[in-house]
Structures are given as structure tokens and as C-alpha cells.
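I hope you will forgive my troubling you with a question about protein structure. Here, with my thanks, is the record as I have it:
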Amino acid sequence: MLLSVRIVVIGLVLMSAMLLAPGSYAEGLPGSQRIVSTDGATTEILLALGMQDELVAVDVTSVLPGTLADLPSVGYHRTLSAEGVMSMDPDLVVGSEHMGPPPVIAQLEAAGVSVVRQPSAHSIDGLKANIEQLAASLADGADSSSLLGEIDEQQQKLQRQSLKGMRAIFLLTAENRLRLSGQGTAGDALLKLTGATNPADFDNYRSVTAETLLSYEPELIIVAAEGEAGTAEKLLSEQPLLSHTPAAQNNRIIAVDGRTLVAGIGPGAVREALRVVEQLQDN
């Protein structure tokens, strides 16, 4: 009798350890999935949908709350490793259409892993479609109504405070180089969310000089950066010619978190656009 009790107690202890072990909380639970997210916007949507317990790995652009800070990284979404992703034992891998390379995606699908590749959203309608698709792809579905309602509310605020008619440019800066956001880019999509006009008449991103930017006479300059503090001062110290732009003269150089724009716009990009227009309203 005593031996039987000991066996039962040991069994319960082992079961508890398996349930509480790191990386195993998404296993064995009814309706649970092991999800790998390869895009920062996708990760944000999954968290908003309450899927934090199902996430087992993310990409390098994902911003995580402190409770998930130890989640493994699978690297950058365009250069995934099949071995690295498969080591997470995923049921579902989600990301943008840029997720790759293609042979890796083929390997994942051949191994029976569900892969969801979403088009890069360049409008709020596109973002909402991605949210609905992602919610439907989860094991038991997910209620996206709260997140969609929040985005609708932010869209209404953006429309009420629209920067319509304002000339604005979106910049990537690295190693003292300037890359200007053209049509069809995530930077251009963010400008459109604010209602501003992007004067760049080319597609994709293009390396430019400060003289070229000065010719656009931008009234607003948005710079992709991870930290806002000191961004305007740093830009003007590296590119002093830009101090002659209307944007600089009217204190309208604003930083946004570039991680929210890696593969189109996500909920974070909508919040950043709203922050920009509200900051200008306060000036």
C-alpha cells in the first residue's frame, strides 16, 4: 500500500514538473499550439489576441513584455534556418510574405508544419484583414473584436487630426547615410496614416543626399529609430544642411520605432502614427 502511494506521488510531481518546465507550457493543453512568429507586427497581433502562452520563439524585430523576454529567437525573417525553426517543434509558423528563404519554407511545410505568410499591410484595411486571417488560423480561433475595435478608434482619431496637405518625408539613417522612403514602402504607409503627403515620386527606398531632401522642402521629417531621445539633434549634427528645412525650423523632426515597420504596418505603427499627429497638435 505504501509503495503504491509513493508511485502516485512521484507521478504527480513529474507531471507538475513537465507542465511548469520552460518551453513546455504550450504542450499537451487542449487546443494549444506551439507558435513561432517571424515578424514583429505578427508577434504584436498574437499577443493582443492572447496567444502569449502559445509563443515558443520569435524573430529579432519582435518587442516582448518582460515576462516573455527569455523566448528564443529564430533570427531575421528573410534569412530563417530550417533547423533553427524546427528545433522549436512548432505547429504553426507565421509571418509576412517576406518570410524565407523559399527553400526553408518548403522544408517546414514538407515536415507538416502549418505556415501562414501574410501580405505586408500598407493600410488599416490591410492590417485588419491580416488580424482576421491570423485569428482564424489559430487552433481554436481567437476573438479579434477587441483589437479591431481599438484600431478603428485609432483610425478615427487619425482622421480627425489629419495632417492633410503637409509635405512629409520618412527617413532611414545608418552610418551617416540617408535613405528616403518612396511610394509603396512601409514608411510611405505610415505617412499616409497621418494624412501627410509624401513628395518622393519613386518606388521603394533610395539613397539620397541632404541637398535632395532640401529640395523637397519637407514640413515634417519622420526618422526611423528605436529611441526618440536626441534623434533630431543627431540628424542635424550629421546632416547640418537639413537645418534649413521647414521641418527643422519648426521643430518637426520626429522619431518613430522602426521595428514597427519591418514588414508593413502593424498595430504598433498605427500607434506611432497617432503619436506623431498628436505631438504636432501639441506643438
Remarks:
- DSSP finds eleven helices and nine strands in the chain.
- The CA atoms of residues 165 and 196 lie 6 Å apart.
